[in-house]
């Protein structure tokens, strides 16, 4: 995957294929998934502070997100403030996932994000749609800190994902 090669190059990895070689995206041994995310119009009886999707970070390597113009996606900045990820026509959002954070020993940090209810009345009455491509390493890949440190314990991509799903669902 070209994006993973570019990330490896940007991180000055000697082997720029290191990450992409661990992602055989269309094999049976890989949990990469595309999901259509649909948020219905917001009902009138919304409680103060209610949101559409709570704060979280994605579990895999990265997420490629295509969103409509409804808005509502927010990401947390380095200083802890929520900022709007306003839709830009023709643009995609790339979120770093937790496994890539572990691999890079926090050189790349998993993007904490959420979806809030829009303030504009017109946008509350419309649906929000997005398409998320959750990119995961192959299930049997052992994720360990590539810098040799012991900050994170090694774990297989499959076991990490299974653990996260069991905590979530």
From TrEMBL:
PROSITE patterns, per database record: FE2OG_OXY
- Pfam families xref list: 2OG-FeII_Oxy
UniProt-listed InterPro entries: IPNS-like_FE2OG_OXY, IPNS-like_sf, Iron_ascorbate_oxido_reductase, Oxoglu/Fe-dep_dioxygenase_dom
User: Which residue positions does the secretion signal occupy?
Assistant: none
Coiled-coil regions listed: none
Q: Which domain of life is it from?
A: Eukaryota
Q: Could you identify this protein by its name?
A: Fe2OG dioxygenase domain-containing protein
